[in-house]
Structures are given as C-alpha cells and as structure tokens.
Amino acid sequence: MLHPHHYTLSILKHILDKTEHTLFPADRLFEMRKEYERLAANPATTVETIENTIVTFGKELWPYHEGLEELYRRHGKKKEEELVRKTLSPELREKYDRYIAAGGSLADFRRGSDTEVYFTPEEKYELGHAVVEAHAITMREIAGSCHADKQHECEEVITDHRNKLARIEKKLAVLKTMAARSETWRGEIEDRLKTFEHAFGYLERTFHESDVDGTIDYYQGVMDE
Q1: Measured between alpha carbons, how far is residue 112 from residues 94, 108, 128, 210 in Å?
Q2: Is 1 within the bounds of a domain?
C-alpha cells in the first residue's frame, strides 16, 4: 500500500539516489536512507515532516549536487551530445545534425520549444529516450571520475559550492531578521524565505545567490520608505 504522501517521499528518495555516486560521505548517506525508510514506514508521517527532512538533507547535499552539475557543464555536455547522436537511427541522426548545425541544442529537447515543429512525434520520442539515457550515462561517468582522475577537481568544486551555501545561509538569516522587524512585510518575506529553503530540496525551482541579494535589496528599499 502506498504511503499517503508517496509523491513527496519520492522526492526525498530521488535526492538520496542522486547522491550515491558523488563524494558525499557514505556513512552519512546511509543514515539519511535509514531516516527515509523510517518516514516511509509510518503512514502517519505528515507531509510537513517529510518536506522539512527534504530541506534539511537537501542543504547538506546541495554542494555535492551543484558540484556535479558544474562538472557536467565543464566535461559532460559534449560527451552527452555524442552519445545521443550514436544511438539515433541513420535518418534521424542526419536530421538531428541539421538541427544542431542550425543552432539547436540538447536543452531544447528538455524544454520543447522549436523541437515541437521540427521533429515528428515519433522522432521526438526516439530523441527523448536517447537524451534521457545519454544524460544518465554521462552523469554516472562524471560522478565516477570524482573517485578517480578528477577527484581533486571535484573536491575543489564541492568546496566552492560549500562556501557559496554558507554565504547564502547568512543572507537568508538577514531576510529572517528583516521579517521579524517588519510587521507589514513579514508574511511576504517569509514566503520568499520558504521558497528559497524549499529549493534546496527541489521542492521549488532552483535559484542563484543573486536572487537572494535582489530580494534583500528590494525589501531594504521598501522598508526604508
């Protein structure tokens, strides 16, 4: 029988599964999995409890996930394109090459956009499957390289993102102080804080540090009026 909050639990499981091949400490990941299993085994577990766990774990895992994405941008995109191309039928490969030569990219297949009119439904299905498979293979290989030839680079990237997380946390603390100070803007600021916090666990869209800076600047402006 499915847990009443099976979908939210699946998000927690996803972020843990995504961490498995990174440099995140294995013993800590094991503890997180045990907590997931405890939550999943109890049908009385509330959605708020699951979401809070996702955010807490998400922050801890964030530097490793973001580091992996940065390494993908550095080393994986070209390899992924080559893998996609190899798996396509000859006819579709030729059409795909024309699309890429005209300025298209793999990102278009995730967003839709021009691919909706350029490719037939059957071609989009084949391409979609190839893109998903190629991305999974590429990410596994990059994660594996963090335990081999790119370990030093991976550690540097993770440290960079850990430092970024520390800066973001300090800025979120500034927003919390601002919310406590202003009765007028408290609810709105707290909503923005919740959005930022939830993004660490992929419960909301990801954000950039500059988004937090902009939020602080905006509310400082309106509170000083």
Answers
A1: 20, 6, 10, 27
A2: no
- 85, 126 Cβ separation under 8 angstroms: no
Is residue 110 assigned to a domain? yes
Residue-averaged pLDDT of the chain: 90
Task: Judge whether residue 116 has pLDDT over 80.
Answer: no
Domain enclosing residue 73, as ranges: 6-224
Q: Which residues contact 102 (CB under 8 A, 6 or more apart)?
A: none
Count CA within 13 A, CB hemisphere, residue 11. 19
Residues in the chain: 225
Give me the number of domains the chain comprises.
Answer: 1
65: Cβ–Cβ under 8 A, 6 or more apart, which residues? 15, 18, 19, 22
Torsion sign over Cα 135, 137, 139, 141: negative
Token pair for 104: 């298209």
Instruction: Decide if 195 contacts 151 (C-beta within 8 A).
Output: no
User: pLDDT tens-digit profile of 39-70?
Assistant: 999 999 999 999 999 999 999 999 999 999 89
> Tell me: the pLDDT tens digits for 121-154?
888 889 888 988 998 899 888 888 888 888 899 9
In a domain, 76, yes or no: yes
